[in-house]
Write a structure and sequence with these properties.
This protein is of the alpha/beta class. The protein has three domains: 140 residues, HypD, alpha/beta domain 2 (Rossmann fold), CATH 3.40.50.11740; 74 residues, HypD, alpha/beta domain 1 (Rossmann fold), CATH 3.40.50; 65 residues, no CATH class. Helices cover 32% and strands 18% of the residues. The protein is built from twelve helices and ten strands. The strands form three sheets. The protein has a four-stranded parallel sheet with strand order 2-1-3-4. Helix 3 crosses helix 8.
Length: 308
């Protein structure tokens, strides 16, 4: 018997497909169409409000995202959660994934533009290993065109000069040490664990989970029947989807045989096409509409910079 729960998640997560038989809903959006009580939210505060408005029902908040998403969720936990609000935490740290790429034989890029929103929370120091351990040019860029241009120029200048350093090109938001309050909230409510990255595998110390003292709000503990181990194809990309290799910098979005045909923003098959920030969606929005399987695949050495 299914649990009478309300499931809330940030809007873009509703369209992410999973690996289940075709006769079953393959996304939260499809589950909602089949009658499930699934609601998109834009803020963790909305999850708490929904829980308070439905005190007789369990409300499960699917917490997917990186450090910038976990910070406001952690702040909400510190304020006190309604008893019926459960958290399904699928948070990830950014830098361990980049470290894994740099430790591979062919990283797929030779300079890094690190995410300014993550550095705003966690501090620029997290990215010093790129230069220190791998002698790779690096710059921190924000979401403004000026900041991105400055970060791109910086990495190109470093390559031309043969001098690698970490350049903070988002100084209006990124400060040494990051945001102390946000970091403290995360540390007091979450613990860092090994985590699986879809299509890539397990990356050591790259995920968040609730601390034991918040077990009463841990959806995985309260609904053990929905544990990941019950899904035999968990962690896999949909058949034919190359999102994992796109994320790893091994192929371009247009090298995927589904890109532009079966997979478009309106009919997204892989997570890289679902989100506005996904690599495939970005390429599509920039006008790259054709599948490039018939052309030679661009080698990793031809790419100048990759942004996480």
């Amino acid at each position: 018997m299914s649990e009478p729960v309300v499931l809330v998640a940030f809007g873009d997560m509703l369209r992410v497909p999973v690996n289940v038989p075709k006769n079953q809903p393959r996304s939260l959006e499809q589950a909602k169409a089949h009658g499930a009580d699934v609601r998109p939210i834009a803020s963790p505060m909305e999850a708490a409000a929904i829980a308070r408005n439905h005190p007789s029902r369990s409300v499960v908040f699917f917490v997917a995202g990186f450090e910038t998403t976990l910070a406001p969720v952690a702040a909400l936990i510190k304020q006190g959660l309604p008893k019926n609000l459960l958290l399904l935490v699928a948070g990830r740290l950014t830098w361990p994934a980049v470290a894994m790429l740099l430790q591979s034989e062919r990283p797929g890029f030779n300079a890094l533009i690190a995410p300014g929103h993550v550095a705003t929370v966690m501090g620029p120091e997290e990215w010093e290993f790129v230069v220190r351990d791998h002698h790779m040019p690096a710059a921190i860029g924000g979401f403004t065109s000026e900041s991105l241009l400055a970060a791109t120029y910086s990495t190109l200048r470093q390559i031309v000069d043969g001098r690698a350093f970490l350049d903070n090109c988002y100084g209006e938001s990124v400060r040494p040490g990051g945001n102390p309050t946000a970091r403290r909230c995360i540390a007091e409510t979450m613990q860092v664990v090994d985590a699986e990255w879809r299509g890539i595998g397990t990356i050591s110390k790259s995920g968040f989970q609730l601390r034991p003292e918040y077990a009463a709000h841990d959806a995985r503990l309260q609904f053990p029947a929905g544990a990941d181990e019950a899904r035999p194809r968990r962690g896999e990309m949909p058949p034919g989807c190359d999102c994992a290799r796109v994320i790893l910098g091994k192929v371009l979005p247009t090298d995927c045989r589904l890109y532009g045909s079966a997979c478009t923003p309106d009919t997204a098959i892989g997570p890289c096409m679902v989100s506005d920030e996904g690599a495939c969606h970005v390429w599509w929005s920039a006008g790259h509409r054709s599948n490039a399987r018939s052309r030679a695949t661009t080698s990793g050495s031809g790419r100048i910079a990759a942004r996480t």
